[in-house]
Design a protein that fits this description.
It contains 20 helices and no strands. The protein is mostly helical and 452 residues long. The chain has one domain (19-228, 237-440): Growth Hormone, Chain: A, CATH 1.20.1250. The model has no long low-confidence stretch (mean pLDDT 86).
């Protein structure tokens, strides 16, 4: 009997590698300006609140317009290939718009500069174009992450599911680390500081090519499934299935864990280099390098913890542990002046534990036909946090440093305490998830891999 294409280790790992390149490039561009926050603010003239607005604009459509949720429904209807082409195109357009908004060519008064300067004049045209670019980028990227999750579930369910998720996440974290390290170095050595953004664009284009190669493999897989009279992508999704998702307590708990946990991590990364510069008086380059300890830690630990979930289980307990470590780290940062190295490594471990267990757990709680919608709903709710928390952090930072002169040392105490509060909510939802799993029997504490 002919074996399915996903039974070939070479084929499924090749597919994972190609889609993980997209993960790397989009995560790189998400944080491409984080390591050069002060340079960006100086060159374009942004307040901390403006920077938070630009950073959080990524999540606008996915929050207010529920686009990641709708994208998940579209994915369950249209399938991976058609949906993927649409949303990776938005990624390319959004990243180009963001980098162009920061460019000297745009500042020189090119097409669109005058129009953007004609309204909301208390915001600069550069800020407005960067916000628009981030919005389009976020619209494409967040739904594309939904697509990536469904691709992994499609190729790896009952196999190395958590390990595959972990490797995919590791590529994303490595993209973040690379952005934090390379952006300040590119600015320091390039002819113009905007080269950092254009380098991110180059990576996005490489990712586009990689996804095109993946589409060829995906087409072969689905054609083979059709020939074997086995549905590669179930298409019997119904709008009524949404109600079943929203009444599933375990699913709601894991969604709430997702938004609170990521709200305490990703926005922190956006401010971390500046936080380290102000609290520990590091240079911009060194601050980006130290901050990269966090995503670099996840590159190693996320696949490792994913492997553990595959062969040993204990996913629910791992989510509780990761949430607890997150709280400890933010309390150390806010309440003490201890060296940042150890807390950042611990935060990297926490940032590995929860995603390694959480994303594969959804495939146990939710049926395959609703998986795109489920992941889309998670990303939508997560994006409320990713949009609002950076803006709130910026406002808290400004409000608690009113008397600090320009270029003075900022006090991040209340800003980091805010993140610790999100961590406390996260551990509460993780505990409720474990309790509900015992009641429903989803098997979150059991191994993911089925013995062959």
């Amino acid at each position: 009997m002919r074996r399915a294409l996903n039974e070939s280790a070479l084929a499924r790992w090749a597919a994972l590698f190609l889609i993980s390149l997209v993960m790397f490039a989009t995560y790189y561009f998400y944080d491409v300006y984080s390591g050069i926050k002060s340079t960006l603010q100086t060159e374009i003239g942004l307040s901390n609140a403006d920077y938070g607005m630009m950073y959080g604009a990524y999540s606008f459509t996915n929050s207010f317009l529920l686009m990641a949720f709708l994208g998940g429904m579209i994915l369950d209807r249209w399938g991976i290939r058609k949906t993927g082409i649409v949303f990776i195109s938005l990624i390319v357009i959004g990243t180009l718009g963001t980098a162009f908004g920061a460019s000297g060519y745009f500042h020189s008064g090119t097409v669109g500069y005058g129009f953007l300067g004609s309204f909301l004049q208390h915001y600069s045209p550069a800020l407005k174009l960067m916000v628009l670019g981030r919005i389009i980028f976020g619209l494409g990227a967040e739904t594309f992450y939904v697509i990536l999750n469904k691709i992994i579930a499609k190729w790896f369910k009952t196999k190395e599911l958590a390990l595959a998720f972990g490797i995919n996440v590791a590529f994303g974290r490595f993209g973040t680390a690379a952005a934090l390290i390379l952006s300040p170095r590119i600015v320091a050595h390039a002819a113009h500081w905007t080269s950092a953004g254009w380098f991110g664009i180059m990576l996005i284009l490489i990712a586009l090519i990689a996804f095109i190669f993946y589409l060829i493999i995906d087409f072969r897989f689905d054609r083979q499934m059709s020939e074997m009279k086995t549905a590669g992508e179930p298409d019997n999704f119904s709008i009524r299935d949404i109600g079943l998702l929203l009444t599933n307590k375990s699913f709601i708990f894991i969604v709430l864990l997702c938004v609170t946990f990521y709200s305490a991590v990703f926005p922190f990364l956006g401010f971390a280099p500046d936080f380290l510069m102000n609290k520990f008086h590091f240079t911009p380059v060194f601050s980006g390098k130290i901050t990269s300890l966090l995503p670099f830690g996840t590159v190693v630990f996320t696949p490792l913890f994913g492997w553990w979930c595959d062969v040993k289980g204990k996913s629910a307990s791992i989510m509780i542990l990761g949430s607890f470590l997150l709280i400890c780290v933010h309390l150390i940062f806010s309440l003490t002046s201890l060296t940042p190295y150890v807390p950042l490594v611990i935060l990297g471990i926490a940032f590995s534990l929860v995603p390694a267990a959480m994303w594969p757990a959804v495939a146990k709680i939710v049926e395959v036909r609703r998986l795109g919608t489920a992941y889309g709903f998670m990303f939508t709710i997560q994006n409320y946090g990713l949009m609002l928390v950076p803006l709130i952090m910026g406002k808290v930072l400004d409000a608690t440093n009113k008397n600090v002169p320009a270029g003075g040392t900022l006090n991040y105490f209340w800003t980091i305490i805010l993140l610790a509060g999100f961590g406390i909510l996260g551990i509460l939802f993780a505990i409720l998830l474990k309790r509900d799993d015992k009641r429903m029997g989803y098997g979150l504490e059991l191994p993911n891999k089925i013995s062959e």
